[in-house]
TrEMBL record:
The keyword Calcium does not apply. Pfam families: DUF1385. The chain crosses the membrane at residues 48-67, 73-95. It comes from sediment metagenome. The lineage of its organism: unclassified sequences, metagenomes, ecological metagenomes. This is Membrane protein containing DUF1385. Signal peptide: none annotated. Keywords: Membrane, Transmembrane, Transmembrane helix.
Length: 148
């Protein structure tokens, strides 16, 4: 991921990723969604998909380590097939829970690995990228409003 981040094209994607996080931070904190307010926020977000994937991976390693090695390939495959949705659900709920207790010291420590990983997948965006992320959020909010 480090070497991918050095490619010019991927760097721009990582900058857009950072812009998305900044806009979401401003929205979640109830700030007016102006460029000046949005720029103040970090490009790292505790409930990022990158953090989600890290949690899925860690829980998977732990869970699958209990699957007996003597099981046949079919049993191992089926057990993983059954457990992956449960692991993904647990990971998602962990992220949701972390948002509710974000000021807890232990939770703060637990989300640090995900934030460290995001240092590889996000970059500081320029103003145009922030504007794109802001327009995307506004569109999503309009769609939610019309579906409510």
């Amino acid at each position: 991921v480090i070497s991918i981040g050095l490619w010019k094209e991927m760097r721009r994607i990582f900058e857009y990723h950072g812009a998305e996080h900044k806009v979401i931070h401003a929205y979640e904190n109830g700030n007016d969604l102006t460029l000046g307010n949005i720029k103040k926020f970090s490009p790292l977000h505790p409930r990022c998909g990158t953090s989600f994937l890290l949690i899925v991976m860690l829980i998977s390693i732990f869970t699958f380590s209990f699957i007996p090695q003597e099981w046949s390939f079919l049993y191992k495959f089926l057990s993983r097939l059954i457990l992956i949705p449960l692991i993904a659900g647990m990971s998602y709920e962990f992220l949701r829970f972390s948002a509710r207790v974000k000021n807890n010291v232990i939770m703060h420590l637990m989300i640090q690995p995900g934030l460290l990983l995001q240092r590889l997948t996000t970059r500081e965006p320029d103003e145009a990228q922030i504007e794109v992320a802001l327009r995307a959020l506004e569109e999503v909010l309009l769609m939610e409003e019309s579906n409510a």
